[in-house]
Amino acid sequence: SVAVNFRILWLFLTKYCFFLSEGSDCIKANAQSCGECIQVAEKCGWCTDDFLKQGESKSARCDELKSLITKGCSKAKIENPRGSISIDKDKPVTNRKKDVAEKLKPDQITQIQPQKLSLNLRSGEAQTFKLKFKRAEDYPIDLYYLMDLSFSMKDDLENVKNLGTDLMREMQEITSDFKIGFGSFVEKTVMPYISTTPARLLNPCTSNENCTSPFSYKNVLKLTENGQQFNSLVSKQQISGNLDSPEGGFDAIMQVAVCGDAIGWRNVTRLLVFSTDAGFHFAGDGKLGGIVLPNDGKCHLENNMYTMSHYYDYPSIAHLVQKLSDNNIQTIFAVTEEFQPVYKELKNLIPKSAVGTLSSNSSNVIKLIIDSYNSLSSEVILENNKVPEGVSIKYKSICKNGVVGTGENGRKCSNISIGDEVSFDITIESQKCPSQGKSETIRIKPLGFNEDVEIVLNFICECECSKGGEPLSKICHNGNGTFECGACRCNEGRIGRLCECSTDEVRTDDLDGNCRKDNGTDICSNNGDCVCGTCECKKRENPEERYSGKFCDCDNFNCDRSNNKLCGGHGRCECRVCICDANYTGSACDCSLDTSTCLAANKQICNGRGTCECGVCKCTNPKFQGPTCEICPTCPGVCAEHKECVQCRAFETGEKKDTCQRDCSYFNLIRVKDRDKLPQPADQSYPLSHCKERDANDCWFYYTYAVRNDTMREVYVVETLECPAGPDIIPIVAGVVAGIVLIGLALLLIWKLLMIIHDRREFAKFEKEKMNAKWDTGENPIYKSAVTTVVNPKYEGK
To answer: Does the keyword Glycoprotein feature in the UniProt annotation (predicted)?
Structure first.
């Protein structure tokens, strides 16, 4: 039924779309063939080996190489084609000298290397090759002078009449192979650009000026080596006129670019000098004259005159850029100061173009041309034609003095002199195979030069193993698919790992019944989809984790862990059970059977005081601990343990001197004269302890204690004690007396100093009070003077 078929298709699509947002790119692709797999990414490979477990779909054959090997695929059975580069034409760049007698033809000069390559591209894998460019000395030049002959350029025409011979002479300094041509333009010959009255058509100029009839573009002189011919023809030219200020120069530039035979362009450096003192019309301006047809970009010269100016509109700037680039023409705009800003903006839109300031009468035109040519030729800019969909190109320039450019700057190098060599690293990468055909051709060329590099792109879209595919193979359910690269590519309408199922034949009940374990309710243990009555297990985000089994009831990631590692990192997980590596056991393979980690310094396992379990010592005596049961925190040290016996045996002193024979005969005593004679640890192959102990008289004695062969004990002891010397009484008494005297003198000096300070302070205080004392100078109240003064009342002071 339709519902059943829809359910089958839904389950089939679900299986291939479930992990679109999870896992690696190889897994997400759900590739059904080797060709589909290798187009996913560079890291993807296809396994042709029979390694799939029950429940895994054939898309599991497509995965990263490491994951395929981990899953059990033989490395020799992995299809992983790689891209390559082959150079088909590699003519070296020309080392040409201008003063050499032998002259080369333009097609014999090579400035770019290599000239042709073939690239085999695999999706996601970039291929990089090096391109060299070298400016050849004495390279031929074609220069076409295109001049505005409107009335305002009258005085300029006089100076251009001798341009041919003068420019020839100057250009001899640059090249010995130079050709020059001349063309002129005015405007479209329709209203409102010119006056169409009969009189104005004959002479568009006012007053008594004798002007020629207006025209759009005229090819006056084809490119020639004869400078005199240039002067002769240009001197015969007459000024014309038009009504509006902008000129029809774009029509003329288009014809100069596309009429190669009429102009005489060679495959050399092509220069177009555009001389004017006005602006320009461009696409759309033709509507003013009723001209609506877009410019067709074709040559329409008859008798060296442009005949379709009244029929086609002006070209657009983009159209001009395309045609100038296609024909390798470099443009020099020689314009007056007034229109410099306009043409500088135009220069930014036209690659490999320059703008020079033309004097009011064109007297500086030769210098302008020379300077502009040097500016243009000192820069190389690479461009490529349209690349196929999914293909990208990146440029990296290695220019003069090691200057490196990337991004857009990676396309160009500046300040290149004649004879300089620069290089470019060009990287081409494809993200997918083209829909039409398996081969595409692109070209890369330096702007303004006639040479280019042809690159043939061959896309790796299928694996080598697919060539040996077996159509209608019996392996694929009696011919329902093609067996290739270890898997079946099913015919239309067939699904399943072996194309064993048709969407028109299988019923829903069959699907569910065959995919339930033990007649349970879960389909494929909830870890897969039932496709064609068979469980096809889901894929995990981690490509190393997978479900397997007839009912997807097994996996390789749900085993016991140790130290946060599956199976302790010492085994593999199969159907949720750890299969341990050699020398490991336990449910998580965390128990090592290796006893080397339990060996003590005496080469005994756990120092003879425990057992080795899973590579770790379990001490049987609880008072011992440590990695090999060598530490006993509560046990006395070796030196303290044997001190009393060594003391009684060597010096007949100590607490055990009365029981020495009974308690201290368990070791062999050897006396030495000094400490240097004691055995050293580095000299022994058995444990050795150095001891330093003190007796009741504060005397030190030194000895070593060692155990040989677990039974033989040896004690080396220095036979003389180191006792501290007794105190010297006289120095001590003299020192005490001297100390007392010194202390007394110091105290006296301090007392004397304090008294002096006190006396001085008291005297200073007395002096201060003396200075501050004031005596009362008032009169005695009972005192009467003995002198009496009498005043004569009649005295008037005379």
So the answer is: yes
